[in-house]
Specification:
By secondary structure, this protein is α+β, with helices and mostly antiparallel strands. The protein has four helices and eight strands, in the order αββββββααβαβ.
Amino acid sequence: MDKSLEIIKDKIENIGSAIMYSVPDTVLKLPTQIVNTLCIDELGHLWFLVPRPVQHVALFDRIFPVKLSYFKKGINTSLSINGLGEMILDPEVINTVTCIDDELREKARDKYMLVRIKIEGVEMFEPTARKNNVWAAVSNFFMETLFPFHNPSRGVVEYKIAG
């Protein structure tokens, strides 16, 4: 497994749940919802169970752009993931997913739907160390005074997943 994928996998497993935003331009789309990560496979796909929509699933786009926001109170790291979601409805495909158990497979065939997300981009927000010198302190004071929403203690690390 790729080193950056290992880092992302560890962060996702530590946080556990995310807000999933479906962003297609179609009338019927999956609602914004909180999802729990079931597993991350060796290819870097994220797997979720979501409630099956009341509308006929065939009316939805099977593949759709999605955004996931991972954050948890008390954990300094948060992730923003962009990718392509795919509704997995075929029972034969559901049976081949190795990272879920039989109980989850049964749920995926009944009232829930299995969703696989291929990660395309990740932004990770982590605290960065402050510099301990006079000029950095003066600069931070003026930035915080002039721009109260500026937060110099937060950094952004962006990962690109190959594939």
